[in-house]
Each structure stands twice: as C-alpha cells, then as structure tokens.
Amino acid sequence: MFGQLLSYLPPSLLARWQLLVAVTAIFNTVQNFMTLKLTRQIYNNIPATSVTSLQARTFAVWTLTSAVVRAYAAYHINEKIIYDMAMFTYLIAFGHFSSEILIFRTARANGGVISTVIVSTSSLIWMFLQYDYYVRS
C-alpha cells in the first residue's frame, strides 16, 4: 500500500521525505490518543501527573494537523502556498520543542525531543535551500 502511495508522488526525495514524516506523525497522533507513556517521556522534566490526557489529545490534534499539511505537501511539492505551509509546520515544531527545553524547562534533551528537533531543523533547512527549485513563483 505504501508503495502505491509513493507511485503518485512527484519524483522527488523531498516529497518522499514529507510523506515519511507525515506517516510518522500519524503514528504519534494515535499514540497520543491512546496513552500518555510517550508524551511523558518527552515532557520529562516535570512531574508525570502534569502531563494530562487533555494535553496529550491537544498535542495529538496538532500533530495530525501537521501530518495532513505535510502529506499534502508531498503530493503538491511545487505549489508555493502548500510548500510554505509545510515549512511553517516545521518552524512551529522547532519553536515548540526548543522553547520547552530552553525556556519553559518542561523537557530535557533526550531521544524523543532531540529527534523531533533534528527532523524539524533539517526539514526546514532542506526546504529553505530547495525553495527556488520546487517553487517557481
């Protein structure tokens, strides 16, 4: 099934990356709806009871929203508005996790947080550097 989805993508590594990140975000969405375990591993510098079901569901909705934008960007990688929106999802993710580590101190730099920062940063840089190639205004 995943191979069939890939066949509809433009022949682009960046488009495939967008789809991979979107699928991963859908997994994260499901786990946020089902359990607090992984969310508590990210927000690990506060008491576990501070990470509530409401917070996890809110985070799940944000994650699902970003997954939809990124999946749409995978299939419409040359459309400026969609490309820009996908870039903003990475910027928002980077800002959120960076502020949780550096400002609010609710998270410590562990595997879950660092991987999110790496994905958001590298995706944002990649999209910025390739902007003129994909978006011909």
TrEMBL record:
User: Which keywords, in A-to-Z order, does the entry hold?
Assistant: Endoplasmic reticulum, Lipid biosynthesis, Lipid metabolism, Membrane, Steroid biosynthesis, Steroid metabolism, Sterol biosynthesis, Sterol metabolism, Transmembrane, Transmembrane helix
Report the membrane topology from the UniProt record.
Answer: Multi-pass membrane protein
Gene Ontology molecular function terms on file: protein-macromolecule adaptor activity
Compartment annotation: Endoplasmic reticulum membrane
Task: Specify where it is mainly localized.
Answer: endoplasmic reticulum
Q: Name one GO biological process term.
A: sterol biosynthetic process
Q: Which PANTHER family match?
A: ERGOSTEROL BIOSYNTHETIC PROTEIN 28 HOMOLOG (PTHR15451:SF19), ERGOSTEROL BIOSYNTHETIC PROTEIN 28-RELATED (PTHR15451)
Q: Which family does it belong to?
A: Belongs to the ERG28 family.
- What's this protein's name? Erg28-like protein
